# Entry
Amino acid sequence: MNKADLIEHVADQLGGKVEATAALELILDTIIREVSNGGTVGITGFGTFEKVDRAPRTGRNPRTGAAVPIAGTCTPRFRPGTYFKTVVCEPQSLPDDRLAGARVSTHVTAGADGLAIEAKGGSVARQVGNFHQRKIGVKTVKRIFR
# Structure
């Protein structure tokens, strides 16, 4: 699956290719900007994106065997989360009744008028900042994902 295929799949859930493209581009832009500034982006259950500095080292020219200095650099790294590793090895453990990446206490459904997110007790919540959650109504969630 490439980026265009991913957009097509998400467009089926969100109701339009424009919305799906904007959502995916916004997520990727946020991850790229945060990691390039030295930050870490951790998505619970999925994995962590981070910037890693590589020290200078000495390599070898495979043809001559001569020592070649390799300058230090930085590179992005992705470390998959435990849940992601588990479902890759055991695809039968993927849930049938909810999204694979959704939290256990969250049930996300896609309908003709957008997505609905239900947390424990039927309330609707979305994450704001790192740890703060505030409750919002189902109509607000549907409006966000239109």
